[in-house]
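thought: fold this chain, then report.
action: predict
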Amino acid sequence: MPPTIAVPANARFAFVAKVGACVGLLAMSDALFYGYAGGSVIGLFALAWVIALVLVRPVVRRSLGGRAAIIAALLLALALAYAPDLLGVVLFFLALGTAALLPRHRFDHAGLWAIRLAALGVKAPIGPASDLRRIGKLPGRSSRWSANEIALQLGLPLIGGGLFLALFAHANPVLGSALGTIRMPGLGPMFAHMLLIGATLTFVWPTFRPRATRLSSEREPIPARLPDLRITTMVLTLTVFNAIFAVENALDIVFLWSGATLPDGVTLADYAHRGAYTLIATALLAGLFVLIALQPGSAAAKNRTVRMLVLLWIGQNVFLVASSVLRVLDYIDVYSLTVLRIAALMWMALVATGLVLICWRLMTRRSAAWLINANAIAAAIVLTASSIVDLGAVAAQWNVAHLRDPARLDLCYLSRQGSAALIPLIELRDAPVSAAIRDRAIYLSDREYRDLALQQADWRGWTWRGARRLEDAEAMLDDDTRQPRPAPHGRLCDGRLRPPPPLPPAIKAPSTETPPAQTGPTSSPDASTPLTPEQNP
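observation:
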């Protein structure tokens, strides 16, 4: 007799509940996401997914970490319902995957946990097929289903049911007419539906039945150590590093912080822009050096002189990051604010936080896992805030509110922000600007208003943030009847009138004047008559 596996009744019920919840989510995803236009329905699906996970796997809420992950997933689902974006989707997947894995693993630190989440994603496509194969090992079944048995199990009810339905439709005109109104989708839409359902199954099912991922680090809690450097080497190296950093920081204090006159040929914008990102790379290298060379428990980490030099050097690095922030702020003040520059400022804040955490780890002799988790928490806070706050709207609002020279306002960049720039563009209509810029603001704001209204009219594209933004725009434009100037040849990205196309080169008309009378010897009356040798000179 082939071996069988005894399955308790409650385990069978739990498996059936997971299958039912998965089928419900698949149907929901097909109804919400087929023809998806970027709306808040993705947040509704995320909320349903979290609720289904808690119901079919009660174990996820029995631990403190599991409850924290579920709460984080719920908050991120609400954020997706408010304003969906790719970063919010990624953070939601990380939170929900963490909640699914915590019952099977102990959370050690964010580095190893990222590997487990990646393994969960890699194993996801084979999860449903693996569980389907395990069904064949239930009591009363052979250890492995054959292809013929699977075809019989699925084909007999489908083919037999279709045959009887066709016979009844032929015999019953009411049933036949009702079935005649059904139009099967074409191969293209049907393939799109199946692809969508398959992708949803790949994401949903692994959270209901995650596979455990055991790492070698769980069996080897003591990591390998690098050879310790000599005390004299560390003292000499840190002294040189501190001296070089002191020169750079002194120049920043003189020219950047105190506002001294720069040398000829160097502008403040050049001084601010050239070093902003390079100095951040320098600070990162400094932090990496401290992590490698001063491991907790090493002789160098216990030496008082080395520790003081390290603290001084990290302090100089933090000041270097502050100077980089000031460089970016000066550059923004001269030019404009963009989403990339906001991201650069947040990245610099994370670098400074990481340096301070490295210093704190050295002073309190914390573990590497503590340092990784502390930096991961800081990064998670910044990324979550970035997924909720509309950085494009922040940049557009700042550029319009701090308008000094209207001619230098980058309206092309504002137009690329889409509806995020709608409110600032409406405010620009009444700003003290020239008539040409006001006309461009009227055109761009009207265009973004129409696009947003069209998007909000589609329930698959409707968002909570978009609804609030559209309501504010309608209130601001209530009594404004101004229209942009006609643009017979269209407009450019910044709203300027497109110039007319160049005219084709003029074609010379054939001349109708009588050719002048010929002078000189009289030609032969018959041009076809050859000339005699005497006549041909």
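thought: worth noting. The longest helix spans residues 304-334.
final: tokens above.
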